Amino acid sequence: MGLDLTSGLVILLMGAPIALGLAWYAWCNRRLPGALAFLFVIPIGVLWSLAAAGELLTAGLQDKIVWSNLQYMAKAFMPVAWLAVLLDYAGHSWWFKPRRLMLLCLVPVVTTVLFWTNDLHHLMRTEEWLDTTGPLEVLGFNWGIWFWIHMLYSYAILTAAAGVTISVCRSSPPLYRRQPLALLVGSAIPIVVHGAFIFNEQFGITWDYSPVGFNIGAIIIAWGLFRLWLFNLAPVARHALVEDMTDGVIVLDNDDRVVDLNDSAESLVGKQKRQVLSRPLVEVWEAWSQVAGSCSAQTSRAELRLERGDDTHHYEVKWSPVRRHHDTLGRLVVVQEVTERVLMEESLRRQALTDSLTGLPNRVLFMTRLEDAIRQARRRSDAIFAVLVLDLDRFKLINDTIGHLAGDVLLRNVAAKLKHCVRDADTVARMGGDEFMVLLYEITTGRDLLPILDRIHEELREPVYFRQHEMTTDASVGVVIWNPSYDDPEDLLRAADTAMYQAKEDGRGCHRVFDEEMHSSLLRTLAAENDLRASLSRREFSLAYQPVVDLKTGKVRSLEALMRWHHPRRGVVFPNEFIPIAANSGLIVAIGELGLTELCGQISRWRSPSCAAGALPVSFNLSPRQLKEPDFAQSIAALIAEWRVEPDRLIFEITESALIHDPQRSRQVMRELRNMGLHLCLDD
After folding, report:
1. pLDDT at 194
2. Domain span at 145
3. Model-wide pTM > 0.70
4. What's the pLDDT score for residue 4?
5. Pairing of strands 138-143, 125-131
6. What is the CA radius of gyration of the chain?
7. Which of 9, 324, 364, 452 has its CA 20 to 30 A from that of 269?
8. Which of 209, 234, 259 is the last residue of a domain?
9. What pLDDT was estimated at residue 232?
10. Taking a C-beta distance cutoff of 8 angstroms, is the pair 73, 112 a contact?
C-alpha cells in the first residue's frame, strides 16, 4: 500500500477538522438535495476515524478491543447512511420511509450488539491477539460467521449506492458529470481498502486502513464540494424541474448552455435531450433568438410567437436565476403556452369600446368623445354641448320579477329608443347596469334640451313586450350644460350624476338640470372628498368594536367593527356622514382596505387566551364597490394568510344594493369568500 501506520495515524487525526469543514458546508446548504443527509454521515465518519486512532494509540488487548468495537459501530451503519445521501442527492428521498429505514438498520444493529457481546458467542471474532510485528501494536483476530454475513450485507448496500451514483452520472450533462464522479471515487476508496484488508493473505495487509481510506475519500469529496460545487446547479435545478409539467422548463448555465430540460421543452425545441445538452440554447432552438435580447435587458419575461403550419401559437417565456447564496449559477426558463389568452385579449380589445349587450359605445369611448367635445368647446365659443345621465326607473323590479333575459330585452329596446331620440352626430352610450349617457352637441340653452328630453320620456314610457309580459319604464335624467368652469370630463359626469340623483329624489320619471345650488352641494362634496383623500394618506381612520348581545342569554355573541374618521377639525366623524361620499367617489375601496387590514391585525392581536374577545367573530360591512374589484377575494385571502386569521372569525355584511347593481359578479365573489370559510350575511 505504500503507507505505514504512522502516516495512517496522521491522516486519521486529520479527519476531525476535515469533518468539521464538511459539516459546516453541508449545514450551510442543508436545503439542497443530499446535503442534509450528508450531515448524518459526518459523525459516523468522525467516530470511525477517532476509534481507529484510539486503537493505534492505546496499549493492551482489551483497550484495543473496545476501540475496535467502536470502529465497527461506525462501519456497520456507514453503508446505510451513505445510501441515504445518494438517494437524496438523486432525488429519491421519498424511498426512505421509516419502516424501510428500520429494516435496513436491522443488520447493523445486530452487528453492533454482537461485537460488544463477542466473548459470549464468538460470532464476530473467533480469536483475538496483539500483533506487534509493525511499528505500532494493532489488534489481530480471526473472523466469525456473522462478520461475513455483515460484510455481504454491507457490500450489497454499497453496491446499490454505487448504482445510484452511476445512474446520476449517466443522466447528468457532460458539463456537470464530474460532480457525481467525485462522489463515486470518494466513496470507492474506503471500500477498496477495506476489501484489501479482508483478503489480507493476498495483499499482505495486517491492519484495516479503511478509516484512512475514508479520510482520503472525504478529502476528494471535499474537493468536489468546494471545487466542483457538488449539490449545486444540476441537483437544485433537477429538484425544481417537474417532468410532467405541461409548460416547457429549461435549465441554463451562466453561458446560456442547456443543463437540463423536461419533455415539454423537448417538444418545443424539436430535438431530443441528448442533442441539446451542453450546447447554447440559441444554437439548438432558433425561436430563442426572439427573446434572447430581452434576457440580456434584465427583464424577467417575454412573449414568443411560433408558426406551426397554418396555426400561430403564442408563448410567455419567464426566467429566474438559480442562486447559491450570493452566486448566480444559471437560469430556470419556463415556457408557457398562452395562445387562448392572447386570442381572448385580442377579442377583448376589439370589444373594448362597445357594450356587448346593446351595441352602444361604452364608457371608455364616451369619455374619449367627451374630451374631444371639451377641447372643441374651448376653441369655439359656439360649440356648446350638454351631457345627460339616465337611470332607468323600475328596472330592478322588472329584472327580479320577470327575469334577467327580460331585463336584457328592455335594455336593448331602451338603447334603440335613445338613439331614435337624438341626432346621428350625438352619442348615446351605456355606462353599465341600467345607466345610460348621452352627449348632445350644439346646445346653447336649456330650452334647446326640452324637446329632446320630452321625446326621451315619451319614448321610454312606450311599453316593451317580452313573451306575455308588458314592461314599462321611464328614466330619471340628470342634465349638465358645459361652461368653461368644467376642466375635466369627470367633473361633467359628476355634475350630471348629481342632477340625476336629484331627479330621483323628486319623484323619478323626470329630469333635472344641474344648477348653482347643486353646484354648491357638489363643491361641499368635493371638499369632503379631498379631506377623505388627505385623511387616507395620514391614516386618520380607526375601528370601533360594538358588541352584539344575545337578548335571551345576555351574552356577547359577536362584535361589529365600525369605521371612525378622526377629522383634524371636525373631530370624530361617523360612517353615515362620510361613507356615501366615499362610495360615490370610489374612495370607499381604499377605506375598506384600510379597515380590513386593521381588523385582521386586531383579531391577530386578540389571539391571546387571556383576551375575552379572542374567540368572538367580528362583522365588517362591505361596500358594493369593493365587491366589484377584480382581485377582492384574493386580497382577502392574502390578508388572512398574512395575519394568520381563522376565516370563521370574520363575518362580512353585504348590502342588498350590492346584489342589485351587479348580481352575477356579487354571487361569484360571495362564492369565493364562502369557499375560504368566511361567513356572509345580508345587511338591512
Report:
1. 67
2. 5-234
3. no
4. 44
5. antiparallel
6. 40
7. 324
8. 234
9. 52
10. yes
Q: What pLDDT was estimated at residue 554?
A: 84
Buried b / exposed e over 276-294, threshold 16 CB at 10 Å, is bbeebbeebbebbeebeeb
Question: Pairing between strand 618-622 and 650-655?
Answer: parallel
Which SS3 state, helix, strand or coil, does residue 609 take? coil
Assigned domain for 519 exists = no
Q: What is the reported pLDDT for 227?
A: 55
* CATH code where residue 279 lies: 3.30.450.20
- In this predicted structure, what is the pLDDT of residue 665? 82
Task: Retrieve residue 681's grid coordinates.
Answer: 350575511
Domain of residue 442, CATH code: 3.30.70.270
Phi-psi region of 653 (alpha: psi -120 to 50; beta: other; left: phi over 0): beta
Amino acid, res. 70: L
Q: What is the pLDDT of residue 516?
A: 74
Residue 214 shares a structural domain with residue 249: no
- Which residues have a Cβ under 8 Å from the Cβ of 403 and sit 6 or more positions away? none
The H or E element containing residue 220 is: helix 210-227
Q: What is the H or E stretch that residue 26 is in?
A: helix 5-28
| 340 close to 330: Cβ distance less than 8 angstroms | no
Domain C-terminal end among 458, 493, 514: 514
Using a 10 angstrom Cβ sphere, with 0-12 exposed, 13-18 middle and 19 or more buried, the burial of residue 575 is middle
Model pLDDT for residues 2-44, shown as the tens digit of each residue: 344 455 455 555 666 777 777 777 777 666 666 777 777 878 8
DSSP element (H, E) containing 408:
helix 404-421
The pair phi, psi for residue 595, each rounded to 5°, is -65, -40
Q: Where are the alpha helices (DSSP H) in 319-382?
A: 339-351, 363-379
Q: Please give the pLDDT value at position 5.
A: 47
Burial class, 175, CB count within 10 angstroms (exposed 0-12 / middle 13-18 / buried 19+):
middle
Residues 178 and 252 in one domain: no
| Per-residue confidence (pLDDT) for residue 3, from 0 to 100 | 42
**pLDDT at res. 402:** 86
Residues 9 and 29 in one domain: yes
- Count of domains forming the chain: 4
- State which residues of the chain have pLDDT below 70: 1-16, 29-34, 91-94, 96, 134-136, 171-179, 194-215, 218-219, 221-244, 294-299, 324-325, 446, 522, 661, 684
Residue positions counted in the chain = 684
